[in-house]
Amino acid sequence: MTATTAAVIAARQVGKAYGPTTALDDVSLTLGPGEIVAVTGPSGCGKSTLLHCLSGILRPDRGEVWFQGRNLAGESERARSRLRRTAFGVLFQFGQVVADLTAQENVALPLQLGGARYREAAATARRWLDELGVGDLAGKRPGEMSGGQQQRVALARALVTGPAVLFADEPTGALDSLAGEQVLAALVRLARGQGTAVLLVTHDARVAAYADREITMRDGRVESDGLIAAGGVA
Length: 234
Ligand SMILES: Nc1ncnc2c1ncn2[C@@H]1O[C@H](COP(=O)(O)OP(=O)(O)O)[C@@H](O)[C@H]1O
Ligand SMILES: [Mg+2]
Fold this sequence. Notes:
By secondary structure, this protein is an alpha/beta fold. The chain is built from six helices and ten strands. The chain has a domain at about 1-85 and about 200-234: 3-Layer(aba) Sandwich (Rossmann fold).
């Protein structure tokens, strides 16, 4: 992203502590529209806390988080939660798919919460499952699927509303390397296809190769921030 490109999301001097533990210390960064950025660094360096502050799950103690002209750090839990539902997608290490719903119902859910009718939501969900190669599992519940299949369902659910930003925290951390690569390749392809910016948190340096830019963190601070020379593998 160049200096003239508007940021889709920007953190300014964000700080967050848990009691005596400083998790984030003066973190500033921007994410451009459609940009795929990896956040890497050792366990405990503050990656998840950063993602939670940027996505409005946590309110930082200090600093600002700007999204579409609003400082989320100053907004209520209700307003932030609405934003997460409408403008953000989230994907965690364990998919958080709803165990009692089928794959198709899981993916249709965010559309229905946004007011879509059942039939329309179901048809769109089915297209996303097909796109991710798990269309034949549309009627199955998560308990009947492998971890990689569940994570693809979770990915479809995170992207189905066409969010401005996808926040992914170690999305392949619980998968074997083949399943992990399939999920990542699909994540990058589908996010690029609809212009969803991605903040991809990982402690796995190989995962960062899928991104346009890598931010490394250490002890709650940004250590480096720069374009990846190869421009990503996908
Ligand atoms: N809920 C919490 N309560 C207390 N300390 C926490 C909590 N979450 C994270 N921490 C601490 O904050 C620091 C940053 O954690 P985290 O953001 O989870 O790092 P990472 O995702 O890079 O592993 C660590 O020292 C961690 O132990
Ligand atoms: Mg973490």
